[in-house]
Input
Amino acid sequence: MKITSWVDDIADRLIFPSFSRIGPELRQRVFNWDDVDVSGRTIAITGPTSGIGLTTATILHKLGANLILIARNPDKAHKLQKDLASHGAEPTVIIADLSKLDTVREAARTLAKQPLDGLIHNGGGLHDSRQLTADGIELTLATHVVAPFLLTQLAMPGLTASKDARVITVSSGGLYPQRIRIDDLQTEDGYSGSAAYARSKRAQVVLNRLWAEKTASSQISFHAMHPGWVNTPGITEALPRFSGLISPVLRTPEQGADTIVWLAGAERNKIGSGQFWLDRRPRPTVYFPNTRTSAIDSVRLWEEVERLAGLGSVS
Output
């Protein structure tokens, strides 16, 4: 192992230098990050009107991608559409609420009608209290896990029509302390917003690996990533004490979005499929043995999410 990779791995295990702005500032210099080409690629993104999603959409548009903005709020979505159109091609807007599976199905039908080169799952949030959606699913699980699963499956015709499609899930390093509780996926036993969020992020990573395995012979690749600690409303509003404490070293939204954009355009033979990324490098998904998801529980997770999404067996 090269000394630079060894130092990078140690930094990742120490968390603070890796997840803070120190990480990308160091790695960009050490690993000589190159530019990526997404020009002409059709890329859909959920949650594009604020935070990392907004920055990601803005960068992708600037680089020449044909964007499809999947957003809940029509006013914010159309404002973003107008703002981006003033600097290039006008993005397409699809109004869909990830907490309402009927609207997710409608969005997927639109995505399925055309070649789709990228699908970025970014939408979601952290909630203080346990809430159920109209479909009877715990809100965090619904928006972070069930809706993206459904959207991916129903958008498969569009992804398959691309010569090199990427499905990118924005997860979180907050998953590391938590394990998936298969018998309590909907967090009925002692709800904690941060725990529900972290478990949903681990579920995303497990499902990302399973999608990669199931589509290994196709031209579709799957990637999960985490953006580190980023100065966005998501962290400052959901975790005010934490973000206040480390505010001097929070990443910029651009630093948080970089790996998403890079995964959307990097050469496929360099990134493979099914891995978990931070700052353009694959990372372990487990640092604590008791958080590992067994093969049996991985299958159970897939089957339960499939059931909650109202899908038949996805081979």
